[in-house]
C-alpha cells in the first residue's frame, strides 16, 4: 500500500483519483464512486468515506464493505473485483 502525504493509505500503485470536498483527503476512484451510489450519480462533489459516513450516519468501515459488495456485484462504477 502507498501512503500519501496526508498519511492515508490509497490503493497500491495509484495516485489519488479525487479529493474530499470537505476535508481535502485524497481518495481512490472506488471511494469517489461511492458518492455516485449514495449521493447522486451526477455529483461532482466527492466526499471521503469519513465525511460521507458522517453524512449518511454510517462508519467508514461500513462504506468500505459497501464498496467491496458493489465491486463483487460487478458494478461498472467501481474497479473490477479480483479474488486473491
Ligand atoms: Zn473528508
Your description of this structure?
This protein is α+β, with helices and mostly antiparallel strands. It has one domain (2-72). The protein is built from three helices and four strands. It has helices at residues 29-38, 49-56, 60-72; strands at residues 2-3, 9-10, 18-19, 26-27. The strands form two sheets. The protein has a two-stranded antiparallel sheet. Helix 2 crosses helix 3. The protein is globular. Bound molecules: zinc ion.
The quaternary structure here is single chain
For the sheet with most strands, the description reads:
2 strands, antiparallel
Order of helices and strands: EEEEHHH
Radius of gyration: 12 Å
Strand content: 5-15%
Mean pLDDT: 88
Strand order within the widest sheet? Answer: 1-2
Distinct bound molecules = zinc ion
The dominant shape is globular
Question: What percentage of residues falls in helices of 4 or more residues?
Answer: 25-40%
The class by helix and strand makeup works out as alpha+beta
* End-to-end separation: 16 Å
| Uncertain runs | none
How many domains make up the coordinates?
1
Query: Care to count the β-strands?
Result: 4
List the total number of helices. 3
Amino acid at each position: 500500500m502507498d501512503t500519501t502525504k496526508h498519511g492515508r493509505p490509497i490503493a497500491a500503485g495509484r495516485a489519488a483519483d479525487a479529493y474530499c470536498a470537505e476535508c481535502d483527503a485524497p481518495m481512490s476512484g472506488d471511494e469517489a464512486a461511492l458518492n455516485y451510489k449514495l449521493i447522486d450519480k451526477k455529483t461532482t462533489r466527492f466526499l471521503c468515506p469519513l465525511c460521507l459516513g458522517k453524512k449518511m450516519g454510517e462508519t467508514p468501515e461500513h462504506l468500505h464493505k459497501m464498496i467491496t459488495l458493489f465491486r463483487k456485484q460487478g458494478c461498472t462504477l467501481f474497479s473490477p473485483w479480483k479474488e486473491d
